[in-house]
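Bench notes, afternoon.
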Amino acid sequence: MHYRREIDGLRAVAILPVLLFHAGFSFARGGFLGVDVFFVISGYLITLHLLTDLEHQRFSLVKFYEKRARRILPALFFMLLVVTIGAWFIMLPKELELYSQSLISTIFFVANAFFAFTVDYFSGRSETYPLLHMWSLAIEEQFYLVFPIFLWVFFRFGKNVLLGLTLLCLFVSIGLLEWSEGEHTRYFFYASPMRAWELLAGACCAFLWQRFDQIKLPKFLVYGAFLLLISIFYWGKPGIALHLYVTISATSLLLLGVKSQDVVGKILTWRLFVGTGLISFSLYLWHQPILAFLRMYLPVWGVEENSFAKTSFLLIGLILAIGVSVFSWFFVEQPFRSKGPKTRFTRVQIFSLSGAGIVCFLLAACPGIWLEGGKQFYAAEEQEIVYIDHLERGEYVVREYRRHNQTAFSNRTDTIKIMIVGDSFSEDFTNLVFNTHPDIEQKAEIYTHFIVFLCGNLMLDKDQIRALIPRKDQAACRGENWYDDPLLRQNLAKADYVIVTAFWRPWIIPYLSESLNNIQKETSAKVIPVGLKHFGFIYPRVLLRVPPSKREVYRNPVMPEAIDIDKRVKELQLNNYVDLQQIVCAARETCPVFTPERNLISYDGSHLTQEGVAYLAPRIFADRVWNGTIFSLEQTETK
C-alpha cells in the first residue's frame, strides 16, 4: 500500500489542538475534536490494509493482531511502566486507587467504560486522571476486535454489499448518537456504539479510495475542508453534534481529496508536520499523565488557577512530552515495528511479551486497589484528606433527596408540606433539614424536584429558558421539564413552603426575580430562595500542609466566580432570601474548610460532607428567615 505523507501531516493537525486543549488553552476550546480526526484516520488505514490483504488472499487475523501489538503495545507499556512507578510515589491513596483501577481497564482496553462511570471528560476533576485519554484507545481496540471479522465474513459477497453494510452500521451508530444526546451525554461520550460511525466513516473512505484509485475533488472543496477543520478546533464546543459532523466530514474530504502536490498537500507534507505526525501516538500517550501530575502539585507550589504561571508550567509539560515522545519513537516503537528477516522480535516473542506485560501491570495494579491506595500508612487524622471518595460522598448527598422525589402531597390538613426544588445544592439542603429535624416526617410531607445544574432553576416558558441556555449546555437540557411537571404543579398548589436553591449561574440571575414571582403566583406557600455556597477548591495536598492544631481556623480562598454571583444575587433584594455564603463563611472571600472536630466540611468545595451538614445546619437555620417556620431551631410549627 502506497505511503501517503499527507496523512502523517493530518495526524499532526489533529494532535496539536488536543495537546493545547488538555493544557487548558482557552483559544483551543474545540481541540478535543482532534481525537475524532484520529478515529477517521484509523478507520481509513485499517480498512485499506484489510481490503488489500483480502483481495490478495493473504488475510490473517493472527497477522493483523500481531501488527496491532507491534504498533501499540511497546509504546503503551513503556508509558504505563514509567507512569505507574511515578504514581506510587506521587499520588495520594484515593488517587492511587483510582489510577490502579484505570490501569487495569487500560490494559484490557475497556478504559472508556471505566471512565464513563467515574468522571465527566469535561469536568475539572478529569484533569488529574493520568490515564483519562486511554478511553479513545479502548474504542479503537474494540473496533479492531470486531471490524476485521466483519470484513472477512462479508467480503465473499462483494465490495458493494460490504460497503452497503458498512454504511448501514454507520447510520445506525449515528442514530444511537442522536438518541443518546441529553441528560446522560456524559456516559455516551465514551461509548463505542456512539463512536463507531467515526471509524466507519474512515472505512468508507478506504472503500472509495481503493475503488477509484485517484479521486479528484474540486480544489475549493479540499481547501474549504482544511480551513474548516483548522478553525473548528478553535470554536468547536462539546455536546454539539453539528461540530462533530463537521469534523468527520472535513477529515473524510481531506483523506479522499488531498494531493501532495497541491497547496494543502504541501502544507501537510511539510517535514515538521510529518515528523509530528510520526510521533503523534507517543505524544498522545505521554501528554496527559505529564499534565495530570503537574496539576496535582501546582496548588502546592502556590500556582493560582488561570494564572500566567500555571500556563507556563503546563507549556513546559508539553515540551517535556514532546521530548519523551521522540525518545519513545526511536528507542521503543521502532525496534518492535521492524518487520521481515531482520526483525528483532518474532511473532511468538511479541505475543509472549504482550501477555507478560499485561500480567505484570495487573499485578502492579492489584495492591493499589486492595490496600485502598495505602491510606492505612497515613495517620488517622490525615486519612479523610488523602482518601476523598467523591462517589461515596456523592451518594450521601443524594440519598435522602431521592427518597422524596416522587412524593405526592396528601389532602391532609394536619401536615406541613415542604417542596425543595433545585440542582445538587437542593440535595444538600435536604440533608440540612433532616439533620436539624430528624423527626420532621412525623409532622410534614416533603417533595423534592431536581433540575439539572446546567439548565437553570427557573419558572419561565420552556422555550424562553432554552433560548437562554448556553449552546454548549443545550444537549444536556433536552429532557428537562423545569416546573412544567404534572406532579410538581399538583404539589405546588398544596405546598406550605417552597425552597428554591441552586448554584445560580450568571445567565440565570437577570431572570431570577421574575421566576420567583411566577412561582409565588402558583402557590400560597412561603417561597424561600437560598443562595449558593462555595468553600474554595479542595486541594488535599494543600490541606495536608495545614497542621492539625490549626485546621479549625484555616480558611480557604473562595472561587471568584462564586463571590461575584453571590454579590449579584444579593443585589436583587429577593424576599425571604437566605444568604448562605454569608452564613457559612462570614467573610465572603474566604471560608472554613474544617469543622471544630477537624473534619472536612465539603469534599469538593461545593457539596457538604455528613460532618459538614451537622456543623452548618444549626448555623443556617438560626437565620431570622426561618423564624416561626417548621425549620426554626426555636419553634415547632403545627398545622
